[in-house]
Amino acid sequence: MRIGLILAVALLAGCSEPDFYDIDGNGMSLAGLQEKPLVVNYWATWCGPCIKEIPELNELAATHSAALTVVGVNFDQPGEEEQKKQAEKMKIEFPVIASDPAVQLGVAVPEVLPTTYIFAPGGELLATLVGPQTEATILEAIER
């Protein structure tokens, strides 16, 4: 009986709820996101500079996926289906977190767009970049 209880507790501990979901319903843990440098980009469809930087972020995510994680956050936080449509319109190729993660990440919701937060592995905030970024400026912020 005691072994069964220990096994049940161990199995339940491994089945914890995700901290976040992306707009496709995939679960993500904060600990998993913090295993390597994390780039969190806030964007909106009405933000011209956001539109300009998305191709750079797509390239960063594709080229450096083994070394860092890129996620997006829709600043306007519309419903799930609208978020999917807007991400498609913006041609975003990296995960978009469905609900604002600012509280869990320990940052303020940005007042200016685009804003990109750069975190070290483990979750320490390295930089807050305001305005459109390039692959080079983000990599530079991570390397500092």
Explain what you see:
By secondary structure, the chain is α/β, with parallel strands linked by helices. The chain has helices spanning 2-13, 30-33, 48-63, 80-89, 102-105, 135-143, and strands at residues 20-21, 27-28, 38-43, 69-74, 96-97, 115-119, 125-130. The strands form two sheets. A five-stranded mixed beta sheet has the order 5-4-3-6-7, covered by helices on one side. It has a two-stranded antiparallel ribbon with strand order 1-2. The protein is globular and about 35 Å long. 28% of the residues are buried.
Q: Helical amount among residues, as a percent range? A: 25-40%
Oligomer: single chain
**Rg of Cα set:** 17 Å
Total DSSP helices: 6
Q: Unreliable stretches, pLDDT < 50, 5 or more residues?
A: 2-13
Q: Give a count of the beta strands, DSSP E runs of length 2 or more.
A: 7
User: Average pLDDT, to the nearest integer?
Assistant: 91
